[in-house]
Amino acid sequence: MPKTIFLFVFAVIGIAMLSSCKKDSGNFVITFISPTDGSTVTDASDAHIEIKFEAPDELEEYEISLTVDSVGAAAIAPFPLSGHDHVKTKTISEHVNLSSYPSGTAFRLKASLCKNHDCTEKLEQSVRFLIP
Q1: What CATH code is assigned to 24-130?
Q2: Please, are residues 92 and 81 in contact by the beta-carbon 8 Å criterion?
Q3: What are 80-91's pLDDT values in tens digits?
Q4: How many Cα neighbours within 13 Å face the side chain of 121?
Q5: Distance (Å, rounded) from C-alpha 66 to C-alpha 127?
Q6: Distance, first Cα to last Cα, the chain
Q7: Strand partners of residue 54
Q8: What are the beta bridge partners of residue 90?
Q9: Are the C-beta atoms of residues 20 and 43 closer than 8 Å to each other?
Q10: Contact between residue 101 and residue 68 where contact means Cβ atoms under 8 Å apart
């Protein structure tokens, strides 16, 4: 009888541990809706930036930056943008005026998404685009 109780308690603890709160190790996705890599925006005075973040369970920290595509370039306002939302998907949509830059200027739009609460694992992606 004590052996049966021991096995029952062990099984209950095992099930509780397996169903405890853990982050799903599924896919984290960053989708650049606008602009896309290698594209040219249609209107430099109203460049549309739209990025979708997806997490299997819920988002942790995310960050977006926009710079001229050169080493050491400063972020272009209103970037960097960051957030921490407890949702599975989040779409960020911004409009930025890039008309003060010469035609043909290349920009780098970067996005990162933490895969865990401590942000020890990150998904980072970027696209490069031009203004007309």
Answers
A1: 2.60.40.10
A2: yes
A3: 999 988 899 999
A4: 8
A5: 10
A6: 80
A7: 29, 89
A8: 53
A9: no
A10: yes
Helix (H, G, I), strand (E, B) or coil at 100: coil
* Strand ranges for 22-114 from DSSP E: 29-34, 47-54, 61-68, 81-84, 89-96, 106-114
- pTM beyond 0.85: the answer is no
How many angstroms separate the CA atoms of 129 and 132, rounded? 10
- DSSP tag of 52: E
63-81 core/surface letters (b: 16 or more CB in 10 A; e: else): bbbbbbeeeeeeebeebeb
Distance CA 21, CA 17 (A): 9
- For strands 81-84 and 89-96, give the pairing: unpaired
> Where do we find the tokens 């003060």?
100
The residue whose two tokens read 């998907």 is 89
Asked if the model's pLDDT at residue 107 lies above 90, the reply is yes
